[in-house]
Specification:
Layout lengths: L11 H10 L3 E5 L3 H9 L4 E4 L3 H4 L11 H12 L6 E5 L9 H15 L3 E3 L7 H9 L4 E6 L5 H4 L9 H17 L3 E5 L3 H10 L4 E4 L7 E4 L1 H4 L17 H17 L11
Parallel strand pairs: 1-2, 1-8, 2-3, 3-4, 4-5, 5-6, 6-7, 7-8
Helix pairs in contact: 2-4, 4-5, 5-6
Length: about 270
């Protein structure tokens, strides 16, 4: 059922209240106006303008190459298609790791130039100073722990994180530090389900899982993955809700055939 444009706007406080009431939060990525509009009309709570645009929109192997300017552009497109959802914009690699002043400047650019509602950055205690500065400037911040794709060259693998006791303890410490620093929510990516449950119960802010089990306060997937547009990515946590990749290929093949056979345009499709 489509959501009316007059439906109540989702805010960071909406998400906190959803956690408190036990209502699960639904979050998806989007990178352009047309799909953002469809996702918003379908009733999604949060749209993440993810740096995964580097993969699904630009064809890069990792999220590292995407720039601040690219992220602002994608966020502008998404904002134009959204009436209800909270729009969170990823801060790309290199836009906040240097120092907290750089991080603040990048966050301000995203908010002013894109019209986004919040920013997201990866990391734990090492980014808390930046989180505090950004939040103090009036910009909501979502954290991201576990598998952090911007650090893929450091980890060397996309395997599940925090399986060992020491790393699990560090993740709990980082999550609490991000909450203390002012994050309104935190994403857990590819961590053990039981750990995600424990940390979610220890925090007052909402947790969003991707490959982190059912006990987070919400879930997120990459839109192109769950719609079957991407074909070469099939982790255990991914459920494909459609096969738009095959449908699109079939439709284009039929179009090519119709054009060559002069079946298109027919009598009704000409002036």
């Amino acid at each position: 059922m489509a959501i009316s444009s007059r439906a109540k706007k989702v805010t960071t406080q909406t998400l906190v209240k959803m956690k408190q009431s036990g209502e699960k939060i639904a979050m998806l990525t989007a990178y352009d106006y047309s799909l953002a509009r469809l996702v918003d009309n379908a009733g999604i709570d949060v749209i993440l303008v993810g740096d995964s645009a580097s993969n699904v929109m630009a064809g890069n192997e990792t999220t590292v190459p995407i720039t601040l300017e690219h992220m602002i552009y994608h966020a502008q497109c998404v904002i134009n298609g959204v009436d209800r959802a909270l729009v969170v914009v990823d801060m790309p690699f290199g836009s906040y790791q240097g120092d907290s002043k750089t991080a603040l400047d990048s966050a301000i650019r995203i908010m002013k130039e894109s019209g986004g509602h919040a920013v997201k950055l990866e990391g734990g205690t090492e980014v808390c100073e930046s989180v505090k500065l950004i939040v103090e400037a009036g910009i909501p911040v979502m954290g991201h722990l576990g598998l952090t794709p911007q650090s893929i060259y450091k980890f060397g693998t996309y395997t599940v994180r925090a399986k060992e006791e020491a790393e699990a303890a560090k993740l709990m410490e980082d999550a609490k530090a991000l909450e203390e620093a002012g994050c309104f929510s935190v994403v857990f990516e590819k961590i053990p389900s039981e750990l995600a449950k424990q940390v979610s119960e220890a925090l007052t802010i909402p947790t969003i899982g991707i490959g982190a089990g059912p006990d987070c306060d919400g879930q997120v997937l990459v839109l192109h993955d769950m719609l079957g547009i991407t074909k070469d990515f099939s982790p255990r946590f991914l459920r494909r809700y459609a096969d738009l990749g095959s449908m699109t290929e079939d439709a284009v093949k039929q179009y090519v055939s119709d054009v060559r056979s002069m079946d298109f345009p027919n009598e009704e499709e000409r002036y």
